[in-house]
């Protein structure tokens, strides 16, 4: 009987862990979609992606080995949820980019250890704004008309 309970516990733990990774990966995908939509100035699609990002992050558990680190990660998560919710309520592309700047400033510690694809933390040297990308190629979501290629890779995950 103890063996059955132990196996059931391990299975449940693995299921929760898999769900956590799925939520984290879903949040990252929503963020990357949002970034791509801002590159092409699609404010309507950005509203949808930011609402999805907000919902997924609300459900995402945060784990850390140190209480101070956990507090910082939970604070970052709360800020991102707030920015994403605000972004989802406006159709003004310039205002959306301002909210995205807040999201991007906080998201790196939450997703940089996501298994799978390599992430690139990029920064526009003229303004200091940051964003994440799956590609080394720079596509600036803040100034796509005037400075689409302006930026550098400043960190890489994995």
TrEMBL record:
It comes from the Bacteria. InterPro entries: DUF3347. Residues 28-115 form the DUF3347 domain. Residues 1-18 form the signal peptide. It holds the Pfam family DUF3347. Keywords: Signal. This is DUF3347 domain-containing protein. It comes from Pedobacter aquae. The lineage of its organism: Bacteria, Pseudomonadati, Bacteroidota, Sphingobacteriia, Sphingobacteriales.
């Amino acid at each position: 009987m103890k063996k059955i309970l132990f196996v059931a516990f391990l299975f449940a733990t693995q299921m929760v862990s898999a769900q956590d990774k799925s939520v984290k990966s879903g949040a990252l995908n929503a963020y990357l979609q949002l970034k791509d939509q801002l590159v092409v100035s699609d404010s309507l699609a950005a509203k949808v992606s930011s609402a999805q990002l907000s919902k997924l992050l609300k459900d995402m558990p945060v784990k850390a080995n140190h209480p101070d680190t956990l507090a910082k990660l939970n604070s970052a998560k709360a800020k991102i949820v707030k920015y994403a919710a605000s972004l989802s309520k406006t159709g003004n592309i310039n205002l959306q980019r301002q909210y995205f700047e807040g999201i991007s400033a906080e998201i790196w510690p939450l997703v940089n250890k996501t298994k799978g694809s390599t992430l690139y933390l990029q920064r526009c040297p003229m303004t200091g704004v940051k964003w994440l990308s799956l590609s080394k190629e720079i596509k600036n979501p803040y100034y796509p008309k005037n400075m689409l290629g302006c930026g550098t890779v400043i960190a890489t995950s994995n």
